[in-house]
Amino acid sequence: MATIKQINNSAEFQQLLTATPAEKLIVVDFFATWCGPCKTIAPLYAQLSSKYPNVQFSKVDVDQAKDVASSCGISSMPTFQFYKAGNKVAEMKGANPGQLLQYIKQYQGDASGSEGAASSSAAPVNYGVPGHSDLTEFITPNQMDALNQQEEHNVKNIFKNNDAYLESDVDEQLIISVPFNQPVKLHSLKIKVPSISHAPKTIKLFANRQNLGFDDIDSIQETQTIELIPKDFEENAIINLRFVKFQNLVNLVIFIEDNQEDEETTKIQQLIFIGSSTESTNMGDLKKEEN
């Protein structure tokens, strides 16, 4: 598991630049504890540090390490700087997840050595949909939730590239809430299941809805209802959505009403979201206000 290195002074910062192998990308997050966008992007930054172990991730608290912030010319937070062989190769101001990821992919070089998580640093798969790819990198799994899930077979399993799966508990219904860490355009879904008999049948999608419970489903109009059939779970199959209904999407609620063969529980092995990021995600620079 990769870790984020905390830099406390100029000596530690210089040590970071000189001791890190020349071919290895260094990302430095200049943040402040009072900075709202810094807090917003922090979970994604932590997730990326595990997803890209071939990259050295570090953080600098600008109030605790003023000498480092000053020498690096930091004037707004968050600011991300990118270094290779001791030299700065790029800088990004603002909490823009898409741009952060783009810089990491651009400058990381050889991505070998990444730990075997699904959707690693390899190029995103487009699943045969031109202009769109796997959106897993825009989801923070620990912020997802599912109602009526089993404790062992929970929603985090649907992002693991193995035999783990999500399973409903007391009956076949599930409500899955998926928060995206930046606005996206959702084109289609791909669902992998351990068995067709336990596969979802009727699903209702609610765009930009949060905190929906089973009592709310019938009183709120869904964005789209889909009736799935066994061929929708074949290896090369994708489930097309009404694309125009899922623009600027920041949260998706999926209600699974029943399964293919009226089994007691529903099982999902992997849930893949196919789409693209939007360009209107830069939260801009945040200047520290003087009191």
From TrEMBL:
Q: Name one Pfam family in it.
A: Thioredoxin
Keyword annotations for this protein, in alphabetical order, are:
Disulfide bond
Task: Enumerate the SUPFAM superfamilies for this protein.
Answer: Galactose-binding domain-like (SSF49785), Thioredoxin-like (SSF52833)
The species this protein was found in: Phycomyces blakesleeanus (strain ATCC 8743b / DSM 1359 / FGSC 10004 / NBRC 33097 / NRRL 1555)
Domain of life assignment: Eukaryota
Question: PANTHER family from the xrefs?
Answer: THIOREDOXIN-LIKE PROTEIN 1 (PTHR46115)
Where the record annotates domain Thioredoxin, the positions are 1-109
Listed under GO cellular component are: cytoplasm
Q: Which residues form the PITH domain?
A: 124-291
Q: What protein name does the entry list? A: Thioredoxin domain-containing protein
